[in-house]
Task: structure prediction
Amino acid sequence: MINVIIADNQAIFRAGIAKVLAVEEDIRIIGQPPMPEQILNALDKLRPRVVLLSTGFLALLPQIQQIADRRQIAVLVICDNTENAPDFMRMGVQGVIYRSASANMVVEAVRRLAQGESFLQSPNSAEMEVNEDLVGARVRKRLSERELQIIAAIVEGYKNREIADQLYTSEQVVKNALRNIFDKIGISDRLELALFVVHHRILAQATASVPLDQPPLRAVAAAASRHERVRSTLTLASVN
Result:
């Protein structure tokens, strides 16, 4: 049995990868630490054979490699398509795959690392998989920019109320938009959306390219701060 820990800072992607690996009879998910401070303890205590590590946690790589060497853990980095996979191999990890990797490629990479081999997905294969994703491409064309923003927020782990705040709208509008998204894709919940994102990375790339707006509360605070500075300046000017 190949014990695996998934350490990815994107909640929906983490759930999707876990679902893909969980159906394999020889692979068992023993941990999914969402926070950096939990990763080191999970590796040391649970002792997986392979850890899938997103580039969002690379600041911990030196400590992770120390534990990995001691516990004989293979490190498989999950990088974005805009990043250069060989760069991570030079950091000393055993494998690198792109977020655009197919489910079969993820499984193959885990198995090869568990056998003591290395695995490096080439950028060309990553680009090929995206280009050949006809289903993802069709769905992408059916989604509006606002719907892509909502999917992007879900990938980041936001709840409906938080998404509404990010997009300056109501929670009910977000719920209605989610129903439309589910209908267009042919899914019924967030987990199925996670699996769709895992299998159709052309959609993941589209959502990643749509930035969320500044949170309203921060914008209000910033505006208030600017107003206070202006008011103070005018007050000083009138006194002088």
